[in-house]
Amino acid sequence: MSLNLLIVDDSAAIRKILQRVLHQAEVPLGSVYEAGDGVEALAILKENAVDLIFSDINMPNMDGIQLLTQLRASDTWKNVPVVMITTEGSQAKVLEAAQLGASGYLKKPFTPDQIKDKIAGLV
Amino acid sequence: MTNGIGHEALAQMIRTATDDVFGTMLGMTLKPEAPYIEHVPPEHFDGVVSFIGMAGTWAGTGSICCSSQFACRLSGNFLMTELTEVDEQVLDAIGELTNMILGNVKNEVELQLGPMGLSIPTVIHGQNFAARSLGRDAWTVVPFWSGEDRLEVKMCLTAKDHLPHEGGSPRTRAFILP
């Protein structure tokens, strides 16, 4: 089964690197959508079905926490797994994301094996 | 000790975070040089400089600087592509490296100094420009080498009640010299 993914990060570099790491991890990919912030992510989700979302926390316009809040409040997207990828390693941020319904948490820098393990536990 | 942690301890955090990010994301090992304390910033600079702010009970600024040529090489390794001039891709990649390295330093620092928020990085590219932080505290500077190329990772921290203005991180200004 190939996965349709949405990568949400304000850094184009990280979006590109994450796709490269997913290929290195031999994750079977279908469509991969990219968004620069939460607003763009919601617009993409309205048009496309995805199996998994990777989202940064610190972003302009709508950050990862705000995006997660909207997704979990929606009947359509409340069950889509969301993995937060960020440098924000503080316990408070991790706890906040977990309480809001994040499915996992990955700290930058990340390795292909870490990505693979995270996905294997979710889909 | 002027930064609440000690310059040596902060330098070690910078070295660890830089090694981790370069080893994991760029497949590169940098050679560290002895850290030093910077009281007076360089008169002028050519190349790429990035800044990221931190704010909490303590506030600070982290910075990375290197030549344009090295910024292209680092970004090329990061993105696995050849980059020969500083463009949007290079600025974005250097901003993300700054976010990762100094974000991880912040994660260690806040274990001792309390929670801090992290700003979105700012990256500047140019020739003959100067950058100043309006805080009065010294910077802990850790130089690294990759062949003939030099990279500096530096950080300053200030107790919030010592800041020259109310709240936030020390403000940083960059200006082009005549």
In whole angstroms, how far apart are the ends of chain B?
37 Å
**What is the CATH-assigned architecture of chain A?**
3-Layer(aba) Sandwich
Q: Topology as H/E string of chain B?
A: HEEEEHHEEEEE
Number of DSSP strands of chain A? 5
Determine the number of helices of chain A (DSSP H or I, runs of at least 4 residues): 5
Amount of beta strand of chain A:
15-25%
Low-confidence runs of chain B: none
CATH homologous superfamily of chain A - what is it? Answer: Response regulator
Helix % of chain B is 25-40%
Quick one: overall form of chain A?
Answer: globular
What is the total number of structural domains of chain A?
1
- The CATH architecture classification of chain B is 3-Layer(aba) Sandwich
How helical, in percent, are the residues of chain A? 40-55%
CATH homologous superfamily name of chain B?
Answer: CheC-like
Number of helices of chain B: 3
Largest interface: A-B, 21 and 24 residues
Radius of gyration of chain A: 13 Å
Give the total of beta strands of chain B. Answer: 9
C-alpha-based Rg of chain B, rounded:
15 Å
Written description of the protein model:
The complex is a heterodimer of chains A (123) and B (178). Chain A is 41% helix and 21% strand. Chain A has five helices and five strands; from the N terminus they run βαβαβαβαβα. A five-stranded parallel β-sheet of chain A has the order 2-1-3-4-5, sandwiched between helices. The relative contact order of chain A is 0.19. With 123 residues, chain A is an alpha/beta fold. Chain A has a single domain, classed as Response regulator (Rossmann fold). Chain B is of the alpha+beta class and 178 residues long. Chain B has one domain: 3-Layer(aba) Sandwich (Chemotaxis protein chec), CATH 3.40.1550.10. In chain B, 33% of the residues lie in helices and 37% in strands. In chain B, strands 1, 2, 3, 4, 5, 6, 7, 8 and 9 form a nine-stranded antiparallel β-sheet that branches. In chain B, a hairpin with a 2-residue loop joins strand 7 and strand 8. Chain B starts with 6 loop residues before the first helix and ends with a strand. In chain B, 47% of the residues are buried. Chains A and B meet through helix 1 of A and helix 1, helix 2 and helix 3 of B.
